[in-house]
Amino acid sequence: QWAALNGEPQVYSQAITEAQNVLKANFNQDDPQSKVLGQGLEALASKPVSVKTPDLAPTLSSVQAYLERRHAAGQPAEAQQGTSR
């Protein structure tokens, strides 16, 4: 799961292969549930793992602008509090 979420195809492929090996070594291959699981692992092994991350530059710019406005708006109030002491 981690490999799929992080777009690590080598780790993902290795995990699928290990699961297939455990299934073959430890479970009855004639059992219907084992067959279904094996088929599912084969299907997963054939799917590429890649993550297309969104471009966060516009969002980052908006957040930075917001923080700058908030900081600038807070400075006069803080300055006034400092002079009233």
TrEMBL record:
<protein>
    <submittedName>
        <fullName>Putative Uroporphyrin-III C-methyltransferase</fullName>
    </submittedName>
</protein>
<keyword id="KW-0808">Transferase</keyword>
<dbReference type="Pfam" id="PF04375">
    <property type="entry name" value="HemX"/>
</dbReference>
<dbReference type="GO" id="GO:0032259">
    <property type="term" value="P:methylation"/>
</dbReference>
<dbReference type="InterPro" id="IPR007470">
    <property type="entry name" value="HemX"/>
</dbReference>
<dbReference type="GO" id="GO:0008168">
    <property type="term" value="F:methyltransferase activity"/>
</dbReference>
<keyword id="KW-0489">Methyltransferase</keyword>
